[in-house]
Specification:
The chain is α+β, with helices and mostly antiparallel strands. It has one domain: Ribosomal Protein S5, domain 2 (2-Layer Sandwich), CATH 3.30.230.10. It is built from 4 helices and 4 strands. The protein has a 4-stranded mixed β-sheet with strand order 1-2-4-3, sandwiched between helices. The radius of gyration is 14 Å and the shape is globular. The chain starts with 14 loop residues before the first helix and ends in a 9-residue tail after the last helix.
């Protein structure tokens, strides 16, 4: 795997994978977006993106998804880098849910918002089984 690539193995793609994260994950809420985090048994973080249909315009929804995927591609281990100081966090399944009013326009803005969110509202994450 190239260091700057984003293979499909790093993405949540099936409904069951999303459902497991929604059901058992811990939520951290930010301004017009949330992160839902669930430890996984993979050797890397995996990303899922959920954008509410009330956010009108397919082009706008697709642009938001591209921005979030680019952020993740450049910062695959952002949880381990920005997580709590209580040791190394396990690899996670991460679902980014986007609501109306989401206004981040670049991967750098997403990185700053997620970094602030994790520093102020780091959830208590269950350890992997």
């Amino acid at each position: 795997m190239k260091p700057q690539s984003l293979p499909k193995a790093c993405l949540l793609r099936k409904k069951g994978e999303f459902d497991a994260v929604y059901r058992h994950g811990n939520r951290v809420h930010g301004a017009n977006f949330s992160l839902i985090l669930l430890p996984n048994n993979a050797a890397h973080n995996r990303l899922g993106i959920s954008i509410h249909g009330q956010l009108k315009g397919a082009a706008k929804r697709n642009r938001i998804k591209r921005i979030i995927r680019e952020f993740f591609r450049l910062n695959k281990n952002f949880l381990q880098e920005h997580g709590s100081g209580s040791g190394k966090l396990p690899c996670m399944d991460i679902v980014v849910t986007v609501r109306q009013g989401f206004s981040l326009k670049s991967p750098q803005e997403v990185a700053e918002a997620v970094g602030r969110l994790l520093k102020t509202k780091t959830p208590l994450l269950p350890q992997r089984a």
